[in-house]
Amino acid sequence: MNQEVKAKWIAALESGEWVCVKEKMAEEDTNGRCCLGVLTEVYFKENGISPDNVRYDGMSIYWDITPSPDPEYDDEWGADSQSFEDQVDPKIAKWAGLDDEIQSELAAANDARGEYPIDRIREL
After folding, report:
1. Number of H helices, E strands in the chain
2. What are 47-100's pLDDT values in tens digits?
3. Distance CA 77, CA 13 (A)
4. Residue 114: CA atoms inside 13 Å, Cβ hemisphere, count?
5. The model's pTM
6. Best label site of 3, 36, 62, 80, fewest CB within 10 Å?
7. CB-CB contact of 10 with 121 (8 Å)
């Protein structure tokens, strides 16, 4: 895992800004995020993604990183970019250095305990 990203992720998890939620990426009304949802929010902050370009549907986080003036244009990110349930968007996974197996493990620990698996994240 990218150690700089890990430090920022742990700081965000410990900040008290987010409420831990289970079995979903985000819960907008309560400012709830699972551990991977918080990682997604760290990515947004680090990459200057405006909250205006983000939407939540109760399970997932969607965003359009570079809205195109041409609605027919579909770049790599486009409107289909998302972090959902137990996986972040592949670009975020690559940025953080997390593989699918670790993401699933962290999501399962988050859901089982109802709290962020910070100790396990520190080990990465």
Report:
1. 5, 6
2. 888 887 787 776 777 766 554 444 444 444 444 466 666 788 888 999 999 999
3. 26
4. 0
5. 0.85
6. 3
7. yes
